[in-house]
């Protein structure tokens, strides 16, 4: 057995010893307070970023590009992974978590500007991002570095995912939609690993967001108000 996998199994044994009784309250069902849609990048610690150690508290989804959109026979729709807790467990908060230096956003940017040759599965995933990112690429200021351009598109992508949630007939109006960026590259003010709120229910104006949510005004920050 691979040594790393052996280590994972040992860590899981410790986890099981600590968590045994914590599953009692969720044996027969779940009612998570929020669904989070994170990028599956290995640097994005989906539960650890919230210090979440309680089973049943968060419904965590992950994919490259933190997408809420999937293709169906009848056209684009909110992914079933994201929609399930909203439709079946009473969850009324959806959080889209982008991150600095996102590889999926980078690949979509490169494909839109220079073209890429990716395996079919990756190309399909990028194809769900590119139509929504293309207008953002066109709006980028010309004097930006490649890194700065990509991190602005990270915000733009989060905004588009929030927009899709808000415009979907499958998502009730009562659901609060929040867009954030997880920063491990010192792009925002604050410590590495902090989450910065960039969008609440479609509002992206920092001043308006801070006025409406003074309790978290120091966590509201954007790189790009386009």
Average pLDDT taken over every residue = 96
Radius of gyration: 18 Å
Under CATH, the homologous superfamily reads Carbonic anhydrase
Largest sheet descriptor: 5 strands, mixed
> Which fold name corresponds to the CATH topology?
Beta-carbonic Anhydrase, Chain A
Helix amount: 25-40%
**Secondary-structure content class:** alpha/beta
CATH level-1 class: Alpha Beta
Offer a concise description of the structure.
The protein has 226 residues and is an alpha/beta fold. The protein is built from 6 helices and 7 strands. Strand 3 and strand 4 (75-78) form a beta hairpin.
Provide an overview of this structure.
With 226 residues, the chain is α/β, with parallel strands linked by helices. The protein has a single domain, classed as Carbonic anhydrase (Beta-carbonic Anhydrase, Chain A). The protein has 6 helices and 7 strands; from the N terminus they run αββββαβαααββα. It has helices spanning 3-19, 80-88, 103-113, 120-139, 146-167, 206-212, and strands at 34-39, 58-63, 69-72, 75-78, 93-99, 176-183, 194-200. β3 (69-72) and β4 (75-78) form a beta hairpin. α3 (103-113) packs across α4 (120-139). The model has no long low-confidence stretch (mean pLDDT 96). Keywords: Lyase, Metal-binding, Zinc.
């Amino acid at each position: 057995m691979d040594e790393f996998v052996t280590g994972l199994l040992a860590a899981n044994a410790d986890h099981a010893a600590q968590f045994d009784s914590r599953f009692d309250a969720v044996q027969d069902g779940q009612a998570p307070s929020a669904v989070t849609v994170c990028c599956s990048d290995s640097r994005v610690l989906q539960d650890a970023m919230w210090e979440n150690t309680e089973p049943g508290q968060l419904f965590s989804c992950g994919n490259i590009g933190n997408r809420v959109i999937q293709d169906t026979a009848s056209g684009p729709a909110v992914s079933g992974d994201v929609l399930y807790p909203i439709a079946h467990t009473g969850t009324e908060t959806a959080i889209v978590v982008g991150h600095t230096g996102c590889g999926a956003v980078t690949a979509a940017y490169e494909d839109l500007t220079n073209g890429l040759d990716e395996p079919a599965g990756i190309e399909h995933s990028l194809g769900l991002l590119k139509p929504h990112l293309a207008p953002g690429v066109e709006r980028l200021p010309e004097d930006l570095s490649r890194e700065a351009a990509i991190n602005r598109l990270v915000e733009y992508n989060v905004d588009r995912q929030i927009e899709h949630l808000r415009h979907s007939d499958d998502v009730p109006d009562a659901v609060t939609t929040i867009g954030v960026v997880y920063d491990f590259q010192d792009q925002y003010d604050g410590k590495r690993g902090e989450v910065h709120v960039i969008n609440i229910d479609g509002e992206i104006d920092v001043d308006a967001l801070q006025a409406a949510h003074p309790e978290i005004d120091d966590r509201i920050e954007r790189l790009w108000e386009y």
